[in-house]
Structures are given as structure tokens and as C-alpha cells.
Amino acid sequence: xxxxxxxxxxxxxxxxxxxxxxxxxxxxxxxxxxxxxxxxxxxxxxxxxxxxxxxxxxxxxxxxxxxxxxxxxxxxxxxxxxxxxxxxxxxxxxxxxxxxxxxxxxxxxxxxxxxxxxxxxxxxxxxxxxxxxxxxxxxxxxxxxxxxxxxxxxxxxxxxxxxxxxxxxxxxxxxxxxxxxxxxxxxxxxxxxxxxxxxxxxxxxxxxxxxxxxxxxxxxxxxxxxxxxxxxxxxxxxxxxxxxxxxxxxxxxxxxxxxxxxxxxxxxxxxxxxxxxxxxxxxxxxxxxxxxxxxxxxxxxxxxxxxxxxxxxxxxxxxxxxxxxxxxxxxxxxxxxxxxxxxxxxxxxxxxxxxxxxxxxxxxxxxxxxxxxxxxxxxxxxxxxxxx
Length: 388
Fold this sequence. Notes:
single chain; about 400 residues; alpha/beta; Membrane-bound Lytic Murein Transglycosylase D, Chain A; TIM Barrel; Chitinase A, domain 3; 8-stranded parallel beta barrel; 5-stranded antiparallel sheet; 12 helices; about 20% strand; globular
């Protein structure tokens, strides 16, 4: 496999001829819609027996002995069945998003039935995982709700019993605890909560994971960070997901969603607190489109899929650039007099991310989310690793 960056005048046919591959394989691997137009700067995965011809290609290591890793992906019950079928062969865990709860510890089910996802996951030997989130009535993470349950023994027991019942009756094979904005005063109580859940779920033979905000130091300030004790949670859970994304986010200034230099800082800290074999690297499967100029408190970015981002660049004649420090693609375009800045993920950024996972010897990767298919990502992942 290799990655070719499109130049002016390139077509699918000319690139295919250059590397001696079928045009259909390029179209399929890169999800190119008719009429198969390309953007200058676009990264194309060439996977069918390509030979490097010294055109600045990025070579993906052809590893004879691939290390097995665990790969998880979050999905809502309204995911396309076709997308899920295409994705499950690459996943070891499917985090079904999500189950909530009340202050009394009563479990709240997803609005749509998820049993079909559980069934399909098992058909592909992928473990369906119940994802627990503390969403309030407004649909946002609610730290008051977290505080109420982790500090109330009766509510905690009620919630644990209901989770065990759902795992047993519906066929889940794990629990993922995704709590954000935990109060600093609930730091120890949250660790006890994770340990308490692990005792019950572990007795069924299944793991408990916990999502961690991307800290780069133990004393990092902020509501996202102060309630998460990396070392204690690494001990309390079977494994952790470090959410290494959202540097660029909906209400923030234009940035790469997961700039690799910042991701590396987080992992450098994480491995000092948590064993590497218990860490999943969080990977975003999306990008953002910001209207410019950015005005804090006013500007709102549009979430955009990675394939959609490339098609938008083609539509507006934008040249895709690549930030070598962040290891992320971006571009600018103008629509109806408004300039836009777009950051997303491509074959190059994914290849660099997998190299980081291998470098640090991490347990695996977890994607937010797998709601949209990004086929090149999965093909490159399979070149680096085998499925645990």
C-alpha cells in the first residue's frame, strides 16, 4: 500500500496507469463518487499491488508480523445498517451510544432500539458494549447527576443491578463509562464508582472501560480534567480510552481536530500513569468547516465527514494542504462571499496515527464515531495491525 498526493492534471485513470493498478480499486478504496473528480492535494490510497515510482509517495509498512490490537467504535442506534456491516469486520468492540440514568440510579434506554446492533456485532465476532453517559434533560453532560449517583450508595447499587440485568438479558459484552465534566470534589468517588461497576461486570466475564479527557499533566486545570485521576482510573478499569480529539471543535477557532503533536503530549503523560497495554488512543472520524472570520461566542463550525470534506474541496476548487506538525489536511474555500476553513482526516493523518499507536505499544484505538464509513482508514489500519 502507498499514499499518493494528487497533482494538477491528475485523473483516476492517469494515477492508476502510473502505479499499474485498476482505476476501480482507487475509486473503491477512496469512496470516489461519479464522475470521479479529484482535488489537488487530495491523498489517495493505492492498495492493489502498487509499486512506488518516486513521485513522493508515502509508503505504508508491509509488516510480515502484525501486532494484534483492540479497536472500538462508538455508534448510535440510527447508524446505517450498510455502514455498520462495512465497519464491524475491523472492530473488536462496538460501543453502543448510549444509556443514561436518573439521580436514583434508574437506567434510561436509547430512544431507538439497539438490539439489532447487538445481534449484528456478534455475527462479526465484535463485542457489543453498553455505553453509560450522564446526560441531563438538555442532552448535555450533567455533573450534578454524576455527583448524585457516585455519592449515593443506594442509587449506585440500583444502577449496577440494572446494568447487570441489561448485560445478561440483551447480550452486551462489556460496559464503557463515558462521564465528562466530573467535579474535582467527586474525583475519588468516581474512581470508586468505576471499581464498583467493574466488580459486577467482571463477575460476568466482561471488561469495563472508562473514557478520559486528554490530560498532559496530573495537575491540569479545568472542568474536563480535574475530576479524572489517570493513575487511579487506570487501576480501577480494565482499560481506558484517552479522548485525544476536539482541539478543533464546534465553538473553538479553526484547528486540526487531533493535531498529532498535541496527541503525543497527552500520550507521553498517560503512559507515566497507566500501563500502555491498557490504553486506547481516541481517533476522530470527522472534521469541521468554520466560516471566517472566527468570532468566539458567535462562530459555529459545521461537523463534516472526511469523504464529504474532500468532495467539498472539489466542489469549490480548493487545494488541499497538509500541516506537517499537526499531521492533518486542511483547506480554504469561498462560498457566497464567505471564506471557510476546513480541517479533517485523510489517509496521511490516519497512517501517522497508527504509527503513533505502534510506537507506544498501546492496547488499541477507539473511534468517535463510526457513523460514517471511511474505508481508506480501515484498509490502512489492517496493513498496520491485525484484529485482537
